[in-house]
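User: Okay, second chain of the day. Same drill as before: sequence in, structure tokens out.
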Amino acid sequence: MGKRNNRCLLALPSVTYAMRASELLKNYGIDSRVLSLDPSMTKKGCANGIETDCKNLLRAKNILLERNIPISEIRGG
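Assistant: Same drill. Structure tokens below.
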């Protein structure tokens, strides 16, 4: 997991959280996509996440945390 063409990844504890996060960010005008991750890519073995442009990373993180969507790990930025 890492930075790819100015894309950053946020690992989340479940696919449900990833889908909610992506939809929430869309409501704020932040494009993202849900990803299945290889569990070995993260420290906690989270196998779900979202990818977004790194320029939106801090804003996306703050939005998700304010809405009680847990972030297991952040890569990139």
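The chain has two helices and four strands.

User: Thanks, on to the next one.
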